[in-house]
Specification:
- There is one protein chain.
- By secondary structure, this protein is α/β, with parallel strands linked by helices.
- It has a single domain, classed as Rossmann fold (3-Layer(aba) Sandwich).
- The chain contains 5 helices and 5 strands; from the N terminus they run βαβαβαβαβα.
- Strands 2-1-3-4-5 form a 5-stranded parallel sheet, with helices on both faces.
- The chain is globular, with a radius of gyration of 14 Å.
- The N terminus is likely disordered.
């Protein structure tokens, strides 16, 4: 059944689709309304979703409970997405989430984000709800199955 965002809220049961149940996504974005809207969208599609409103809170949330995927804004007051990427670069692959940068930044900034360890970059102005879910699903597919 489609949600208000036009994305199916049924849990993935088709072979080859990621199982969303129990997979954790951390949204790190200083825009309160946008972050809550994304949290609601991801929760409706079956992801366990948390929100942090700046980079420092995002890193603290990761330390408290690891996430499978981090949806990271680059431009935030205080500890920004750039600093978060730099700090995540020091973590081992076992503790580091897959990082999807979702920002209004342009291609030069996205190239820099990739050099700093972002796994994928999504331009916010052209990435709709369905594409955002697809990108997160694709990231989850890269993870080993849960035992």
């Amino acid at each position: 059944m489609p949600s208000e965002h036009g994305v199916s809220t049924r849990r993935a049961i088709v072979r080859g689709m990621p199982t969303r149940a129990g997979r954790r996504v951390l949204v790190v974005n200083d825009d309160l309304r946008l972050a809550q809207s994304v949290r609601r969208l991801l929760s409706e599609t079956g992801y366990d979703t948390r929100v942090a409103y700046d980079g420092q809170a995002g890193l603290a949330a990761l330390a408290q409970e690891p996430a499978d995927v981090m949806l990271l804004d680059l431009i935030m007051p205080g500890l920004d997405g750039w600093a978060v990427l730099e700090r995540l670069a020091t973590q081992t692959s076992e503790t580091r989430p897959i990082v999807l940068v979702w920002s209004v930044a342009g291609e030069p900034d996205f190239a820099r984000a990739r050099r700093l360890g972002a796994d994928e970059c999504l331009p916010r102005e052209t990435t709709g709800p369905a594409q955002l879910i697809d990108a997160i699903d694709h990231a989850i597919e890269q993870l080993p199955p849960r035992s």
